[in-house]
Amino acid sequence: LLRPPIETGPPRALIHFLGGAIVGKAPHISYRYLLESLAKKGYMVVATPYDLSFDYLTTCDTILSRFEMVAATLARQYGALPVVGLGHSCGSVLQLLITSLFPDTPRGANALISFNNKPVTEAIPVFEEVVAPFFTYVAARNATRSSGSEILSVGLQLAKSATVGEVPYEFLETLEQIPLLIDEVADGARDFVPPPAEVKAAARRAYRARRTLIVKYTEDPLDESDEIEDLLQ
């Protein structure tokens, strides 16, 4: 939570930020400069960390539960503030889904940075050939499923100990999502839920933000900003 400086007056709006895949677990580190800059401009900023999962809808539910607890407290302190959803990459897809499929969470506006709604097989070209078989093997390496992913969990704890003082601890915590993803793949996950086509259909049918800013990077091969712009017009 970042509050605007007192001298800027009442908050202009409440920005709800969601970062990209993996780094979205530690937005206060990965996006520190961006978030602090927005706060200095007079915005209240809430950055909700989340664990990456193939199940986007469950992820959205978890994100909203965390956000609404903070938003209720802020509403008592500052009154009703317009909410602006801000998302980068995977976070922009989640903001799109929240605005389309969760009618109890209105957004006055959204800002979608480097929108990326590609299927897993395009976002990770060797997913079917290499990643999925490897993750399945790791999960089944021992007699129990939990033991398989615990191998990596122990390795991550050792990495944290070895890099104390060199890498921010919170950033190393982002790697804790990997064993969870391994278990999802071993359980049969092969694409996001809902898949890209259904995300587009939901946006076309029920997207409710009154205004949307789309930000595209020129050097991002996964960027689909042009496609989502055409869809929302």
From TrEMBL:
The organism of origin for this protein: Phaeodactylum tricornutum (strain CCAP 1055/1)
Protein name: Uncharacterized protein
Membrane spanning residue stretches: none
InterPro entries reported for this sequence: AB_hydrolase_fold, DUF1350
